[in-house]
Give the backbone structure.
Amino acid sequence: MYTFESKIKETVPVMVKIHESSQPKVSVLIPVHRNDINFEKALESVNFSCYANFDILVLDNTDIGINIDFLKQFDRVKYFRLQPFIGPSESLNVGIRESNAKYLAVMHSDDLMIQERLCVQVSYLEYNSQVDIIGGSMEIFGSSNDPKHKIGISKSRSDANDKIIEYMLHKNPLFHPTTMIRRDKLIHNNLYYRKKYDSAEDYDLWIRASRKLIIKNLPDVVIKYRIHDQQFGYEKREKLNKLVNRIQIRHALWIIFHDRHLLQKALKTFTKIFLNSFKK
């Protein structure tokens, strides 16, 4: 075990190499925010990937730390003990900085990876060098009393980059745990997650990235996304809605000054959010 300095303020991770691995092409980033009985199943699903050249970065920011003994059964795992509750943004930023892979695949600690995911996404990015970030479809499973949670296939959203930029005026264009990203493009363009947007950190990143990088959605189902009643309470949903409004207003303003083709739609989004703020 050893420590190293992190560029993230007040975040000094402790890293344990559970297994030595050769130069990986993909790092699977798994932030762990709480002790979850489904975490081992999530790791098993990654370990059964049809793709061979990857490592798994477990980014642990739980309160007392997870028991790492069971990680020894999984190949390619690198475990990072982070400060408790630093949140998803700073956890993922550690993964971005400490990975030495070409591609980053994001995954939640309670989801299941489709066996073909890494094969499909790596193959696409290898043959489409102009594309920097891709998302996909997901299969939703589990149980929840929230009527917004629907079991079944949730197809990926707008596919082409120009459509995604427009779509971002209204919704997040990518399902976060389905994404794969060219790591060097994030670092070169100083694109990292921002803690002030935790809960909507991915939406904020995609909007900033869309001004410099090419984003695309693929139709393939690449993840099984677990739903449960503890995901979004009233306070979390209220916070998320406020963050989403801030993100959409910022995106609309950027379009107003930089993209004449979407000017009217951006003005409509800005006006709608602005007027709704007086109704609350």
